[in-house]
Amino acid sequence: MRIGMVGTGYVGLVSGTCFAEFGHTVICVDKDKSKIERLKNGEVPIFEPGLEDLLKRQIDARRIEFTIDIADAVKGCDAVFIAVGTPSRRYCRDADLSFVHGAAREIAQNLEGYTVIVNKSTVPVGTGREVEDIINAENPDAEFNVASNPEFLREGAAIDDFMRPDRVVVGTSSEKAQEIMREIYRPLYINETPILFTKRETAEIIKYAANAFLATKITFINEIADLCEQVGADVQHVAKGIGLDGRIGSKFLHAGPGYGGSCFPKDTLALTRAGQKYGAPQRIVETVVSVNEDRKARMADKIISAAGGEVRGKKIGILGVAFKPNTDDMRDAPSLTIVPLLQQAGAIIKAYDPEAMVAAKEMMDDVTWCKDSYEVAQDTDILVIVTEWNEFRALDLNRVLEAMNGNILVDLRNIYAAEDMSDRGFSYVSVGCK
After folding, report:
1. What is the pLDDT of residues 6-55, one digit of tens each?
2. Which residue, among 61, 65, 1, 63, has the nearest Cα to 27 in the 3D structure?
3. Which of 110, 135, 321, 406 is spaced 20 to 30 A from 160 at the CA atom?
4. Which residues are catalytic?
């Protein structure tokens, strides 16, 4: 199959590269000329484990191409995927669909023969109908169907998620479009991956509902962690105890500083807005959004409390600023709330992250960026683990303690055991344990 991919951001680049690995011919288009030149040379502008090697293999096999000319990416394709950004608007909770609408117009102007137009971007319910209307208005003679094919990629594990997904969801009422989509995903179909064909509106809601449910699990266990701290219980044991129930499951029951990233924050906001728009309020999700925002600020309070209620003039070392490990993504990262609040309280901040420091430097002021964890620990009064990178799980703790001025370690990800840390001489504070 010949596939066009409009947008070479996280979703577009990962999807296009993996479709090429399936054996399809993929043409990716983006307006950013410098980015396209880098991609042509096999340079990946994002950090995603395994993506650069996989991309170079597809380039060498001539199964993937990159262009700034949308006509090259549309004409002659069996399917064209829209994989552009849909950020939340600053002044309201709506998803900004201007990039999706713009892509639809440009696609319409270059269609030749029957083509399936696929919304791969995360979009509110009804967007497929809007894209259909735009294409009909721009090109009344076009032969096409619009389908919804939401992505379920976790940053840091995107390739595995694409190649071995829990399910593939396709929303379309057209049998012809279904056949093309089935052929595109044929390698997964052979491996007996569940492929759910449904109405377009249903597919659009599935994406938002899935992310909102996972965000709710995170927020739920964070509130349980607060209760555990007050009564002397251990949230990690609570999570294990309820996670062993097959109806609940153990995933996304890890207490911490709150969720962030490119999906959960904007998708929960967009779902609450959709509920308001259609007269079906999503009150649980509205609460999740509010509680999660409060959670990030409360983590700063937790650090200040661990320091005895005063951090003015104290050096605080931050380990990890990305919203999660194995990514350089800083979008809605808890660190973006925690660090400024500590600075407002008078703290002096040092920080290190294995991949996200370039992006973080553009978003955080007055931070001393360090080359590794031990430079962060040097002469600090308080050390804080904000992101659970693997390298932070195997620190030389004796070296860390010797380097510090103080002995307070606040572990917002519970990657160490309280008893062991106490034996090593740390004043150790975790989440959900007293």
Report:
1. 999 999 999 999 999 999 999 999 999 999 999 999 999 999 999 999 99
2. 65
3. 321
4. 263
Handedness of CA 177, 178, 180, 181 (dihedral sign): positive
Assigned CATH topology for domain 214-429: Rossmann fold (3.40.50)
Assess contact for 110 and 70: CB atoms under 8 A: yes
Considering only CA atoms, which of 391, 392, 383, 387 is closest in space to residue 427?
A: 383
Q: 254-266 burial by CB neighbour count: b if 16+ within 10 A, else e? A: bbbbbbbbbbbbb
pTM given for the model? 0.92
List the chain domain ranges: 2-198, 214-429
Beta strands in 363-423 (DSSP E): 367-369, 382-385, 408-411
Look at residues 4, 144, 152, 136 and name the one whose alpha carbon lies nearest to residue 70. Answer: 4
Residue holding tokens 């400024």? 340
Count CA atoms within 13 Å of residue 282 on its CB side. 23
361-387 pLDDT, tens digit per residue, is 999 999 999 999 999 999 999 999 999
Label the pairing between strands 408-411 and 25-29: unpaired
